[in-house]
Amino acid sequence: MSFDLNAVPLLSRSAVDRAELVRSDERALKEGWPSAGLLRVNARGQVKMVDGALIFDEAIEYSAEPSPAAVFLGIGEGRHLWAVRDADLTGELTDLRRLVSDLDDFTAGVLTSALALLNWHDKAGFDAGAGVATVSAKGGWSRVTEQGYEEFPRIDPAVICLIHDGADRVLLARQHAWPPTVYSILAGFVEAGESLERCVEREMKEEVGLDVREIRYLGSQPWPFPRSLMLGFAAVADPEQPLAFSDGEIAEAHWFTRAEVRAALDVGDWSTRAEGARLLLPNAISIARTMVESWAAL
After folding, report:
1. Cβ-contact 296, 265 below 8 angstroms
2. Which CDD domains does this one have (predicted)?
3. Looking at residues 135-148, what average pLDDT do you find?
């Protein structure tokens, strides 16, 4: 029994024009800077918000022209938007993981790009090949060496897979560090020289010992922790095949019925402290929630 996502994952939504052509237009960036908004982000990915709205400073108060320390996020709410790392950010702060219930499309678009870009710049100060210094270019969307070599933001792809039996059961697993009632679907990073489908096969075998088939792509979601892209899949496995946790990441896994999953979704998510609950599922910040909800809705 196949299914599709019944909603766009939360972090895949955006109300920001990424304005790709503006990034390479130094003049346009300079002209937009005096009226631009500047989002300050500390090393923990925290930002300031008031009444559910991100707080942007006036970019012109930070520097007279676009700063090489800032990254251009695009155009939103009628002006250029930038972000900068600020180790001294103080006040009432929040982060992307805590904003599930208050995360609108504008905030999602701003924060996912800001975090992914700033996290990349934190580790990209030197060219990996020659070991020479790099400087930010194109509004923070690339880094270049003195010799002209250009490097673009790195993204780490990872698959996340919902395994079901083709009928009424889904496999959910718990990592060692998670509380006893907290479960989710399985995920893992794509290896060099590996296709996405082969990664699904390998990761599911390594994590729970199952041979999966009928692998289907569902959708994707940026995951800027620090700079990943989650690629969602569904696959079918035999619930009679013994489970084996060979890579040591999974503490336990069980097959749950659709009725049990629906009941867990009604309870809430991982943050819920429901007395007597056997199963708690991820919150909406993760594509895992959308995938489980879509399967449960069949």
Report:
1. yes
2. NUDIX_NADH_pyrophosphatase_Nudt13
3. 96
